[in-house]
Inverse folding.
């Protein structure tokens, strides 16, 4: 019975993953502007953190974030060794307490997407186990582990409320632009798509056949 529950749970998890989609997006504005966000492991520590917000209208399982950034004082990509992505509550229109923080080794799949405003832009993304989120406003920050110099910046975007924040050497400033990112997730309790139902039913059929075979073997 324990094995059956485990397999069924895995099938349901796959059903949720199959339904994951972009639930919020703020594309880059192509200006080449950005807000510094960086952890320097040698000298300055976490000297800069940029934040932006997004809204969830119904109960959702979050599964990942994607974002766009650029380097200052460098002509090409640097050696990002890890990313820290943090989700925050909303506190009167600015980042509140941290809800969940993830640390991902590596460069976040850094991919060159072209030059904008004189700076080469790069796309990044990270995914994680589904995290239940209720309707409301949330904030997110993305901070690379990167020795300064160079300086990494989260590029400006469009499609939000034209408000973001930056903590720079302990001082918080409100910015008058969005930042470029998207949020992946799926509605909790949503009805799986037809292909997902097929996957689930195929798995359940295989599970039933396996259990019947075991019972026959035991009877023999």
């Amino acid at each position: 019975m324990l094995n059956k529950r485990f397999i069924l749970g895995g099938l349901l998890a796959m059903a949720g993953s199959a339904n994951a989609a972009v639930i919020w997006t703020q594309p880059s504005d192509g200006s080449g502007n950005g807000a510094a966000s960086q952890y320097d492991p040698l000298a300055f520590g976490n000297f800069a953190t940029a934040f932006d917000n997004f809204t969830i209208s119904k109960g959702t399982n979050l599964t990942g974030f994607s974002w766009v950034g650029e380097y200052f004082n460098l002509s090409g990509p640097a050696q990002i060794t890890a990313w820290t992505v943090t989700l925050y509550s909303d506190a009167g229109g600015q980042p509140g307490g941290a809800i969940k923080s993830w640390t991902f080794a590596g460069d976040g799949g850094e991919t060159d997407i072209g030059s904008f405003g004189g700076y080469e832009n790069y796309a990044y993304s990270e995914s994680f186990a589904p995290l239940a989120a209720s309707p409301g406003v949330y904030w997110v920050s993305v901070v690379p582990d990167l020795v300064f110099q160079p300086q990494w910046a989260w590029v400006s975007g469009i499609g939000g409320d034209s408000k973001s924040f930056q903590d720079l050497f302990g001082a918080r400033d409100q910015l008058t632009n969005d930042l470029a990112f998207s949020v992946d997730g799926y509605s909790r309790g949503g009805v799986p798509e037809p292909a997902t139902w097929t996957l689930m039913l195929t798995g359940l059929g295989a599970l039933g056949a396996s259990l019947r075979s075991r019972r026959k073997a035991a009877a023999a």
User: Anything to note?
Assistant: The chain is about 20% helix and 50% strand. The longest helix spans residues 194-219. Residues 21-189 form a domain with the Jelly Rolls fold (CATH 2.60.120).
